[in-house]
Amino acid sequence: MNLRRSDEPRRSTVYTEAMEVFHRAAGLIGLDRRVRMELEEPDYEHIFYVTVKLHTRLAPLPQAEEAKFSDLPDSELLPDGLEPLLDGSFVFKRRALIGANAQMRDGVLRLKGKAGLYKVIPGRPERFKAYRVQHNQARGPYKGGIRFHQDVSLDLFKVLAAEMTWKTAIADVPFGGAKGGIKVDPRSLSSEELEALTLRYMYRLKPLIGPDLDIPAPDVGTDASVMGLLLRQYTDGERERHKLRGVVTGKDTRIGGSEGRVRATGQGLAYCIQEWFADRGSTPAGSTFILQGFGNVGSNAAEILGGLGAKLLAVNDAGGTIYDPNGLAVQDLVAYVYDNPSNLRRTVAGYPKAQQISKTDLWDVPCDICIPAALGGEITGPVAERLKCKIVAEGANGPTTPEGDRVLAKRGIEMIPDIIGNAGGVTVSYYEWIQNKRMEHWSETEVNGRLEQAIKSNYRIIRDISRNTPRRTATHNSTRHCIGKEVDMRTAAMVLALKRIEAHYQLEGFSQ
Ligand code: NAD
């Protein structure tokens, strides 16, 4: 039996580090000891394996082996049957051989029109590690994204699942927290392989989830098309399958997705930033910002803030970093990244109308707002020392390390923490779930109207907790949440989450 008391020192891991703020807030509000234990570790940690068959590939031949094939003539294959992958290899489909003129020796061929020689790697089954962590369901069904990425781990999913528990409470939507995914680089798979992997993942996941039990959504490496596949696999053959649409959110609007969902996380972040300016009697117009990550969250936040008159000065993503002191044309950059078939990695790198700078230079760009919207742990202590902004507005999950937080606080740089900053996604996921239950379809104006009201009012409650200014009006009440002293915004957000969750345990009691 584990008799460790919850206030004894913990072994430091990504998870225990991420839980620092939980313990700080729990201590401040004197969170009930048993509730603290319930929340300290996830309800369930599922780890399982999925296997898929990988297609035959043509992989670049190592240079050292090229000499003995120098006389090999060109082979002409139907280009339609070769799917390029990011590692320089091609997925080889049988139709490549239609009308082909191929010359192969020892499994090596020289592709006409492509530099170099390629070796045939026969198709084979491959095993991938998959996860679903269900952290807490005191307030409603588990809810959280599906991540396909090569750097995931149980510890990381525990962090992200717990974050969802806090986020759903802060957004005041009736869900708990979960997260899961597969340890895979999706860019190393063909579209058909990715589909097979996604279907197999849902096949294994099906007993664990459901529209009133656990509701996945997109995250890094997954999107609306992956949600469509998950939906089909979950509902296939079910007699009342239309009633099950709410099993995943973030679907395409044509199959039950909500208007405004794709932009919702960036939109929610923009509402928080607007509220930050409004508190100072100002607006984002004329302000400047830098951005890390130009995916769903980053590119949408950039477009929305651009529309509000803010100027994007620099962007870093997995491929590189670009800078224009006069401001980047956001729409043009979106077209360069997303509408350009030769930009396979969907990166801002190489954007011709900006200077290419190094990633570390990004943090030195003077601006009003810094938006991390990529992966976690990027704003470390040393990065926080370099930043020349007034506020960090977190779009990504956990982008600032605890040391980064301390440095930002010391330097007087303000913070919109992730659990409110990127809560727009889960809030509109909730709207999607309600629409699915009611078989309704709301307009984007209706969705955004509700989202703005929800994000701004919860942001104001967090600000009141942070400043210890309890207020009660006809539409706002922070009196129940303020704790009699000032705290930083991240702690304030956690206080709000814990008070809302604790109420369920206090008022409903514990099931035995
Ligand atoms: P995405 O896959 O669409 O985009 C990720 C972006 O990050 C890409 O531009 C990629 O190039 C960049 N990136 C990846 N690795 C990087 C690195 N090492 N350095 C710099 N840039 C890197 O993902 P997304 O949906 O935009 O999610 C981004 C973040 O926001 C994640 O932390 C995710 O958990 C969080 N988030 C997303 C949503 C949502 O609705 N999509 C909701 C809440 C939180």
Give the DSSP E fraction (strand runs of 2 or more residues).
15-25%
Ligands bound here?
A: nicotinamide-adenine-dinucleotide
Structural class: alpha/beta
Shape: globular
What is the CA-atom radius of gyration, in angstroms?
25 Å
Biggest sheet architecture = 7 strands, mixed
Low-confidence stretches: none
End-to-end separation in angstroms reads 19 Å
Strand order, sheet with most strands: 15-14-13-12-16-17-18
How many individual β-strands?
18
Mean pLDDT score? 94
Number of helices: 16
Q: Give helix % range.
A: 25-40%
Describe the structure.
The protein is of the alpha/beta class and 512 residues long. 37% of the residues lie in helices and 18% in strands. It has helices at residues 14-18, 20-29, 33-40, 154-170, 191-205, 224-235, 261-278, 296-307, 330-338, 359-362, 381-386, 402-410, 418-421, 424-438, 444-467, 489-508, and strands at 44-54, 57-60, 74-75, 82-84, 90-92, 108-111, 117-121, 124-136, 142-149, 177-183, 214-218, 288-292, 311-316, 321-323, 355-357, 369-372, 391-393, 414-416. Strands 15-14-13-12-16-17-18 form a seven-stranded mixed β-sheet. Strand 12, helix 8 (296-307) and strand 13 (311-316) form a beta-alpha-beta unit. Helix 2 packs across helix 16 (489-508) and helix 4 crosses helix 16 (489-508). The longest helix is centred in the last third of the chain and has 24 residues, at 444-467. The two termini are 19 Å apart. Residues 218-221, 265, 292-298, 316-318, 347, 373-375, 395-397, 422, 425 line the site of nicotinamide-adenine-dinucleotide (NAD).
List keywords for this structure.
512 residues; alpha/beta; 7-stranded mixed beta sheet; 16 helices; 18 strands; globular; binds nicotinamide-adenine-dinucleotide
